Amino acid sequence: MIKVYHLDLYKSQVKNSKIVLLTGDPFRVSKIAERIGKQFGGDIEELAWKREYKTIICYINKKPILITSTGIGGPSTSIAIEELAMLGIKTFIRAGTTGAIQKRIRPGDVIITTGSVRLDGASTHYAPIEYPAVADYKVVDSLIKAANKSGVRHHVGITVSSDTFYPGQERYDSFTRYVPKRFQGSMKEWQRLNVLNYEMESSTVLTLCSAMGLRGGCVSGVVVNRTTKEEITEGALKAGEDNAIKVAAASLEYLL
Ligand code: URA
């Protein structure tokens, strides 16, 4: 009987699930499950919660779907992907939050990532840095269809995926207010290179999935636009989170 250590899950518990929705925050896992329950009916059951890893199973047309939290950043996300893959999961969709860096993007919009700049460490343990962090085209297509169907304003393109929230995303509202030279001016450069947003897990999800022959994708709700401010308000967090969940849940119909 296979049991994975960090997620604290037995293979028999996941009922042959093939798709997982990943999110950073364990408390967001039930919000996603409730949304899926409301949209598609079906039972919801908590399977495990150990450290940052909480897993719930729910059903769409009797087909099982997992929702698992990863914690923040690449290292804990890589563990979740490894262990879920061992349990038979083939499709990994991250539903998270993000800071936009292009002026036209508003809080509450969602960003569907086609590829990520690998400003992380974990993905380099799986494939050399020249290897692209790209999303599976069917997952991207499903997320776009889902955003259109749900009436959620969305943007499709490249994301910077950073190991750090502060220096790697060129935030000056930190303890020291110092950003090392390597990252000074980096936001402007990413803007000029048509990058849409910053987040912290997509490069790990996309690189690991491609490298392991799995399908990966990412939809992020915008909680702040960095061209105007750094502060994340409660209202913007709710709008970004709700819309990312809405789109991720609606995409499942096309992927099952
Ligand atoms: N998540 C990030 O990584 N950055 C932001 O600015 C907001 C959410």
CATH architecture: 3-Layer(aba) Sandwich
Structural class: alpha/beta
Question: Strand order across the biggest sheet?
Answer: 7-11-10-8-12
Ligand identities = uracil
Structure description:
By secondary structure, the chain is an alpha/beta fold. The radius of gyration is 17 Å and the shape is globular. A hairpin with a 4-residue loop joins strand 1 and strand 2 (9-10). It has helices spanning 26-40, 74-86, 137-150, 186-192, 202-211, 234-255; strands spanning 3-4, 9-10, 19-23, 44-50, 53-60, 63-69, 91-100, 110-119, 133-134, 154-162, 195-199, 215-225. Helix 1 (26-40) packs across helix 6 (234-255) and helix 2 (74-86) runs parallel beside helix 5. It has a single domain (3-255), classed as 3-Layer(aba) Sandwich (Rossmann fold). The model has no long low-confidence stretch (mean pLDDT 98). The protein is 32% helix and 30% strand. The two termini are 26 Å apart.
Gist of the model:
By secondary structure, this protein is an alpha/beta fold. Helices cover 32% and strands 30% of the residues. It has helices spanning 26-40, 74-86, 137-150, 186-192, 202-211, 234-255, and strands at 3-4, 9-10, 19-23, 44-50, 53-60, 63-69, 91-100, 110-119, 133-134, 154-162, 195-199, 215-225.
